[in-house]
């Protein structure tokens, strides 16, 4: 079992036991109240018969009983008892020698008179009723105290035992009264409660001290209940006969009582003498005071007079009320937090009692003097006399109080009188010093010497809320002890500090005294016990409280003064630091800063400005700012002076520095008022201007890239939708051209084929613009490519009167590029220049130059057309932007051209000036990697002629299925077609195929997923699958094709390309 589970089990058991004790106590309370209620209406006989030399006689008569009311007296001879003759009834009790539980009695008095009394007939006397009330009050004191203490200390074992003890004694009192009144079953609870009550008190005193807290839950303590348990068991066996308790058992019962009460007294004395904590001794002192207040009046005024004279000074009912102090003192010892104040209360009561006696004596002496003089004052004179004497009493109260207090302190509290001087001396000494260390020594030396302490330590509060050691003496002087005390400050229970005893685990600590002034804790004082091991008395507490008050006030003043000095020093240092920080900050700012007066004279400059001017800061003082910055004799026009206090324009160039600066002038205010000085700040904005321009260029570039990406996505989708039907149109046109048809029809079919190829080329350009296809790069001559492109437009240029001037550098290196794409760019620029020149209405010139610049090849196309407006230039490369009239252009030419050049790792820029034409500059890299050069995809492969080749075509387009079936059905090939993945897999499982042509995009299962499924079932198809696509290849598709090294047939395709690719796949591996 884990420790936690064990502790939980113990806690549950303890809770069950506590609840059981509370339940039994409530039961005892109910029983007690029932007995008291029954007794309230039933009288009792109150006569005791005893057997002696003269036979049976009345031994005693209780004045509360009906026998006393009937006149029965001691010495009367019983004639009849309980409706039987006395001789017959009393014969059974001769052995016991006495009988007291009598219901009916008839006696013969010495004078011959016969008297009788019967409790069922005679009324209850008033004295008997008041006896019940007094016993109920005493009983209520026990059980009410128990329940009140339990409400304050619900988890305190001592409180539970005190509750059970109180209710048990309440049962003993109530059941005893009930037994005297012959109430059934009342005698047994009376004996049981009377037997167990003293031992419960013993239990209470054993567990009350905190030193024996371990005993509260120790089952061995139940051993003390062995004796009362034996007595309880023996009572029904030998203690009761014929309805009457036997004398022998009464002796045994008294022995149990005596042992229990002796144990209580012994433990209480032991608790007081051997207590380790002062609190335990104070608890026992409170109990002792309660017992004195309860027993002394009862014994002195009731018990002793009754035993000596047979009469009492106070009625027994009143005497019983004093016993209520006993349970009250027990409860107070458990819950009181200010135990030490009891001696203060006694002292004050003593003082005011003496004052009252003195004032009373003076007033009565005055009255006696007046009346002894023979004067007979009337009502008015008596009223005036009483009023005057009352005023005199009020006037004399203060002096008499001081006099009496001094006399009592000297006679009975001499230590307190001396301690008062000690407090005054400490106050005087502390007022003469402002040093915290000296004050700390004085504070702990005072109680050390006055009380002869073993040790004392003072901790002073800091501004951070922690504590530091002020001074330490005796046993607390070591560093380890000081660390323990410092940790105790954090863990202390504020509710149990002085003037109560310290509740600490360290027996050397007597008190933890908070030093509080103006509701703020300024320190904590620890004091040990006395070296003589004597306990602290009320005078000692008076001294400690006085010293603590004086020390708290003095420490507060010293701490405030010390804080003020520290604050002043910190303030001065803060000013110095602020000055240094301001100067350091002023000189650290990279901006050029100076402070000027109203005449532009420099008062101060920062290090940056001095360095920029090539002068020291001292050399600039008194100079005109414009003389040093602008080399002028007057402020520049861009500087309006100091009237506005605003920036002097967007920028201004300082001639001496050669940079562009943003100039700002503001008024230097002092407490919201103008000081007549100005702050001149010059910030270098050259880099900022350049950065802003670059940022604008990058922003425009990013916006263009975003538009290109959007158009590219659209182009890719359009390409797929066009290429599928276009493949059928072009394929069937080529099939018709390959057949023997009339020439007229052949020309018309050729127009269809050429138109299809033209649409295919447009789609290809759109995909190129979208950068979705990989360029076919090869090594080429740029000048040769330019010349070939010019040949395409030679006729148009010549008829438009446009000359072309070529400036080529000799021996230009070849570059690696896609000739088709690059020719498209050149053709687009030539056509744009041609259209621009035509707008002027006269002939023009297009100049084309090419030369090597470092590791780039620069190609420039210029024209002498009208030029381009500045606001149009940033938009030229945007998709679908055109300056041409509707129907003359798509707005994609320059966008595609720019995309192609960027794909080749180059750049294209434009420069134009209105009326002077436009210039396009292209730069292409010369160090392109050779691996980017692809083989010509149209590689001639000898066709296989073997017959009976089985081909499976997988495509959801029926027109493409028929086209491929017709295209590949020659040479005795067997062609099967499937429209989806499920049909294809069924055919592959049922028939062997030599090659598979498969579309990548199909409804349901994609081409890539179908390929994986085919290879998983038929691994031999690895390398014998051709994929067909009608749109751009995404990165995932390109990675898939590259990984599996698949042949790709792009829609629309011609018949020769299909035959060539099928033959290449079917041809044996040359390796």
List its traits.
Rhopdopsin 7-helix transmembrane proteins, 30 strands, Pdz3 Domain, 1071 residues, elongated
Descriptive overview:
This protein is α+β, with helices and mostly antiparallel strands and 1071 residues long. The chain has seven domains: 15-39 and 126-336, Rhopdopsin 7-helix transmembrane proteins, CATH 1.20.1070; 47-118, Roll (Pdz3 Domain), CATH 2.30.42; 343-411, no CATH class; 414-565, Beta-Lactamase; 589-684, 2-Layer Sandwich (Beta-Lactamase); 775-932, Heat Shock Protein 90 (2-Layer Sandwich), CATH 3.30.565; 950-1066, Rossmann fold (3-Layer(aba) Sandwich), CATH 3.40.50. 53% of the residues lie in helices and 16% in strands. The protein has 30 helices and 30 strands. The strands form eight sheets. A five-stranded antiparallel beta sheet has the order 15-14-18-17-16. A five-stranded mixed beta sheet has the order 20-22-23-25-24, covered by helices on one side. Helix 5 (157-180) packs antiparallel against helix 11 (325-335). The chain is elongated, with a radius of gyration of 61 Å. It starts with a helix and ends in a 5-residue tail after the last helix.
């Amino acid at each position: 079992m884990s420790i936690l589970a064990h502790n939980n089990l113990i806690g549950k058991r303890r809770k069950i036991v506590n609840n059981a004790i509370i339940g039994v106590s409530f039961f005892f309370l109910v029983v007690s109240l029932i007995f008291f209620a029954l007794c309230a209406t039933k009288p009792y006989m109150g006569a005791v018969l005893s057997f002696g030399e003269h036979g049976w006689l009345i031994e005693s008569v209780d004045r509360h009983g009906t026998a006393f009311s009937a006149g029965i007296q001691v010495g009367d001879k019983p004639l009849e008892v309980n409706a039987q003759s006395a001789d017959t009834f009393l014969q059974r009790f001769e052995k016991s020698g006495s009988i007291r539980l009598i219901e009916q009695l008839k006696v013969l008095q010495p004078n011959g008179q016969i008297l009788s009394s019967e409790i069922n007939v005679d009324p209850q006397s008033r004295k008997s009723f008041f006896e019940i009330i007094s016993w109920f009050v005493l009983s209520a004191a026990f059980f009410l105290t128990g329940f009140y203490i339990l409400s304050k200390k619900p988890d305190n074992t001592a409180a539970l035992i005190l509750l059970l003890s109180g209710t048990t004694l309440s049962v003993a009192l109530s059941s005893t009264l009930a037994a005297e009144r012959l109430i059934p079953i009342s005698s047994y609870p009376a004996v049981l409660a009377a037997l167990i009550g003293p031992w419960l008190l013993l239990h209470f005193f054993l567990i009350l001290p905190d030193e024996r807290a371990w005993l509260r839950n120790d089952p061995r303590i139940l051993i003390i209940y062995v004796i009362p348990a034996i007595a309880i068991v023996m009572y029904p066996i030998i203690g009761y006969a014929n309805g009457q308790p036997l004398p022998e058992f009464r002796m045994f019962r008294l022995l149990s009582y005596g042992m229990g009460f002796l144990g209580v007294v012994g433990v209480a004395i032991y608790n007081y003498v051997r207590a380790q904590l002062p609190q335990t001794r104070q608890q026992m002192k409170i109990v002792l005071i309660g017992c004195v207040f309860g027993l002394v009046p009862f014994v002195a005024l009731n018990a002793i007079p009754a035993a000596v004279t047979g009469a009492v000074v106070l009625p027994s009912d009143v005497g019983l009320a004093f016993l209520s102090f006993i349970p009250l003192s027990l409860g107070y010892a458990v819950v009181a937090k200010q135990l030490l104040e009891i001696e203060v209360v006694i002292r004050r009561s003593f003082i005011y009692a003496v004052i009252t006696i003195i004032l009373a004596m003076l007033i009565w002496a005055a009255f006696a003097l007046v009346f002894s003089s023979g004067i007979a004052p009337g009502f008015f004179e008596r009223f005036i006399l009483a009023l005057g004497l009352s005023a005199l009493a009020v006037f004399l109260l203060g002096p008499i109080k001081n006099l009496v207090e001094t006399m009592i302190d000297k006679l009975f509290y001499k230590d307190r009188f001396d301690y008062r001087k000690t407090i005054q001396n400490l106050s005087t000494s502390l007022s003469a010093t402002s040093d915290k260390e000296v004050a700390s020594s004085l504070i702990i030396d005072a109680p050390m010497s006055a009380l002869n302490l073993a040790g004392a330590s003072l901790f002073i509060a800091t501004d951070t809320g922690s504590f530091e050691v002020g001074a330490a003496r005796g046993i607390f002087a070591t560093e380890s002890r000081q660390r323990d005390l410092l940790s105790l400050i954090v863990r202390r229970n504020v509710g149990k500090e002085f003037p109560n005893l310290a509740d600490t685990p360290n027996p050397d600590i007597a008190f933890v005294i908070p030093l509080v002034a103006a509701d703020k804790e300024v320190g904590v004082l620890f004091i040990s016990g006395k070296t003589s091991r004597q306990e602290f008395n009320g005078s000692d507490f008076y001294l400690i409280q006085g010293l603590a008050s004086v020390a708290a006030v003095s420490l507060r003043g010293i701490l405030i003064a010390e804080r003020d000095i520290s604050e002043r020093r910190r303030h001065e240092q803060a000013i110095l630091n602020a000055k240094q920080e301001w100067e350091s900050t002023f000189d650290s700012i990279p901006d050029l800063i100076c402070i000027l007066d109203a005449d532009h004279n420099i008062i101060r400059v920062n290090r940056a400005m001095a360095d920029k001017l090539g002068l020291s800061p001292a050399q600039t003082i008194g100079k005109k700012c414009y003389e040093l910055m602008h080399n002028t004799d007057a402020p520049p026009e861009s500087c309006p002076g100091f009237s506005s206090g605003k920036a002097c324009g967007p920028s201004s160039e300082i001639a001496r520095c050669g940079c562009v600066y943003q100039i700002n002038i503001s008024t230097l205010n002092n407490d919201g008022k103008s000081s007549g000085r100005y702050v001149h700040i010059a910030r270098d904005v050259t880099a900022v201007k350049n950065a802003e321009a670059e940022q604008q260029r990058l922003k425009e570039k990013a916006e263009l890239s975003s538009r290109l990406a959007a158009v590219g996505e659209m182009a890719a989708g359009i390409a797929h939708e066009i290429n599928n039907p276009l493949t059928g149109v072009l394929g069937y046109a080529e099939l018709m051209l390959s057949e023997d048809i009339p020439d007229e029809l052949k020309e018309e079919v050729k127009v269809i084929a050429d138109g299809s190829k033209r649409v295919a080329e447009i789609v290809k350009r759109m995909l190129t613009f979208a950068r979705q296809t990989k360029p076919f790069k090869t090594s080429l001559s740029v000048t040769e490519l330019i010349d070939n492109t010019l040949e395409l437009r030679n006729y148009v240029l010549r008829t438009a009167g446009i000359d072309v001037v070529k400036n080529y550098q000799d021996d230009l290196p070849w570059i690696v590029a896609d000739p088709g794409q690059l020719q498209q760019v050149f053709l687009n620029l030539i056509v744009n220049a041609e259209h621009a020149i035509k707008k002027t209405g006269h002939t023009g010139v297009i100049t084309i130059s090419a030369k090597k610049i470092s590791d780039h090849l620069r190609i420039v196309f210029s024209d002498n057309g009208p030029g381009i407006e500045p606001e149009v230039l940033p938009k030229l490369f945007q998709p679908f932007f055109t300056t041409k009239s509707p129907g003359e252009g798509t707005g994609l030419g320059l966008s595609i051209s720019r995309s192609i050049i960027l794909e080749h790792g180059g750049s294209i820029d434009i420069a134009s000036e209105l009326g002077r034409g436009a210039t396009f500059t292209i730069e292409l890299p010369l160090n392109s990697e050779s691996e980017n050069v692809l083989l010509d995809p149209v590689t001639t492969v000898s066709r296989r002629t073997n017959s009976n080749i089985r081909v499976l075509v997988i495509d959801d387009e029926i027109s493409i299925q028929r086209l491929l079936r017709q295209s590949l059905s020659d040479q005795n090939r067997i062609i099967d077609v499937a429209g989806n993945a499920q049909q294809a897999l069924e055919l592959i499982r049922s028939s062997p195929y030599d090659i598979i042509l498969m579309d990548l995009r199909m409804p349901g299962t994609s081409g890539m997923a179908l390929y994986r499924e085919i290879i998983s079932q038929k691994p031999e198809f690895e390398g014998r699958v051709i994929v067909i696509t009608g749109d751009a290849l995404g990165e995932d598709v390109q990675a898939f094709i590259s990984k599996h090294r698949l042949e790709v047939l792009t829609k629309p395709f011609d018949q020769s390309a299909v035959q060539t690719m099928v033959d290449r796949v079917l041809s044996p591996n040359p390796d």
